[in-house]
Amino acid sequence: MLSDEVKQKLKEEFKSLKDPVLLVLHSKGDSLSQDIKKLLTEISSLNEKISFKEDKNLQCLDYPCINIRLEEKDFGIKYMGLPAGGEFKTFIDTIKMVSTNEYKISERIEEFIEEIDKPIEIKVFVTTSCGWCPPAILKAYSFALVSDYISATAIDCFAFRDYAMKYNVSAVPKTVINDKIEFVGFKDDNEFFGYIAEALEEVI
């Protein structure tokens, strides 16, 4: 699935990995799941700090779904669909981000995030050809890395059309927080946290 050139580039990128990353797949046995399994198998073969397994116990909105986590800690970071097109680099960046615990969030907002004590579920609806989707996904994943109360799932609209329709996705990236608050487009730290704060007010 990956060319030799891409594999070599990934090997170089993965030299920066620190903690071992585990890629967990809950598949459906369909052709999409098979493509994802093949991709994850190839990626995990490129560095000893990346491992891959299938697990039917992985809970997700729908399947196939990938959980990107450390072996000893699950941050609630998931991707529904095949990370292809513009989302392939995002997926690789996520692996590195989880492994190194390096993310781009201002210290001020990080302090606010660390004070969260109620569950926040973030869904980011994307397409593989959307230019603003990668930074939107990484922003949501970064928030999940900071707080144990925040989980973030990126959802490929074309692979999961029913969910895209259910959440009235007419433009991407579209972010939905706790099924209560939603917005379209990429937002900076302050704006994003503002929406989370609004969602927290809705939590009983």
Account of the 3D structure:
With 204 residues, the protein is α/β, with parallel strands linked by helices. It folds into two domains: 4-74 and 86-99, Glutaredoxin (3-Layer(aba) Sandwich), CATH 3.40.30; 107-202, 3-Layer(aba) Sandwich (Glutaredoxin). 40% of the residues lie in helices and 21% in strands. The protein contains seven helices and eight strands. Strands 2-1-3-4-6-5-7-8 form an eight-stranded mixed sheet, with helices on one face. Strand 1, helix 2 and strand 2 (50-54) form a beta-alpha-beta unit. Helix 3 runs parallel beside helix 5. The model has no long low-confidence stretch (mean pLDDT 96).
Which features characterize this protein?
204 residues, globular, 2 domains, alpha/beta, Glutaredoxin, 8 strands
What can be said about this structure in brief?
By secondary structure, the chain is of the alpha/beta class.
Secondary structure elements and pairings:
Layout: H1 4-13, E1 21-26, H2 31-44, E2 50-54, E3 65-70, E4 77-80, H3 86-100, H4 107-114, E5 120-126, H5 133-146, E6 150-156, H6 161-166, E7 174-177, E8 181-184, H7 189-202
Helix pairs in contact: 3-5
Q: What is the helical fraction, as a range of percent?
A: 25-40%
Mean pLDDT: 96
- Sketch the major β-sheet: 8 strands, mixed
The CATH C-level name of the largest domain is: Alpha Beta
Please, what is the CATH homologous superfamily of the largest domain?
A: Glutaredoxin
The Cα radius of gyration reads: 16 Å
Question: What is the CATH topology descriptor of the largest domain?
Answer: Glutaredoxin
Number of strands: 8
